């Protein structure tokens, strides 16, 4: 079982581990329409890892992105209290690719602005934060009385 070092910025080897797990998940992608094989690996604050891949549909619009699949799995497995520490996204198409807008909002439901997001850029994996990808995300606090 893969283990991760404790809080603080993720070490280089932890980032690589998370990216590898995302790439492994991408190998299971169901993407007969786009042939774009995406995987996501979530590192939860308790150290658990949950992965997901994109699952397409002939109707196209019912496609689930890898990040959304991973979140659904994480909540199903660990319950509604999950919090994300980091998310790695990989694809097997050697493409620079960032989480889509819908995925950013989905991740924001379970992550603070400083959660790390690792994604493939032209020159290799990049690390940024959720807050940089979706500033001023719509959050539950807006609709839930304090
Ligand atoms: N896709 C993801 O899985 N995550 C993203 O953030 C962007 C797009 C998938 C959806 C679809 O199956 C394929 O990539 C092409 O858009």
Short description:
With 146 residues, the protein is an alpha+beta fold. It has a single domain (12-131), classed as Cytidine Deaminase, domain 2, CATH 3.40.140.
What does this structure look like?
The mean pLDDT is 94. It contains four helices and five strands, in the order H-E-E-H-E-H-E-E-H. It is an alpha+beta fold. The longest helix is centred in the first third of the chain and has 15 residues, at 12-26. The structure holds tetrahydrodeoxyuridine. Tetrahydrodeoxyuridine is lined by residues 31, 34, 36, 38, 54, 56, 63, 65-67, 99-100, 103.
H/E order of the elements?
Answer: HEEHEHEEH
Radius of gyration: 15 Å
Question: How many angstroms does the end-to-end distance come to?
Answer: 40 Å
* CATH level-1 class: Alpha Beta
- What is the share of helical residues? 25-40%
- Which ranges are low-confidence, i.e. pLDDT below 50, for 5 or more consecutive residues? none
Structural class: alpha+beta
CATH architecture tag = 3-Layer(aba) Sandwich
CATH homologous superfamily label: Cytidine Deaminase, domain 2
Number of structurally distinct domains: 1
Beta-strand fraction estimate? 15-25%
The biggest sheet amounts to:
5 strands, mixed
């Amino acid at each position: 079982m893969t283990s991760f070092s404790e809080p603080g910025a993720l070490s280089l080897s932890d980032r690589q581990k998370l990216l590898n797990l995302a790439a492994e998940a991408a190998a299971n992608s169901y993407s007969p329409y786009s042939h774009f094989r995406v995987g996501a690996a979530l590192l939860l604050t308790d150290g658990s890892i949950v992965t997901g891949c994109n699952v397409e549909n002939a109707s196209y619009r019912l496609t689930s992105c890898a990040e959304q699949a991973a979140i659904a799995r994480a909540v199903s497995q660990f319950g509604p209290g999950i919090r994300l520490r980091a998310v790695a996204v990989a694809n097997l198409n050697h493409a620079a690719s960032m989480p889509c807008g819908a995925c950013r909002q989905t991740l924001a439901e379970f992550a603070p602005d400083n959660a790390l997001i690792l994604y493939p850029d032209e020159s290799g994996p990049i690390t940024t934060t959720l807050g940089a990808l979706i500033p001023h995300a719509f959050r539950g606090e807006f609709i839930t009385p304090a």
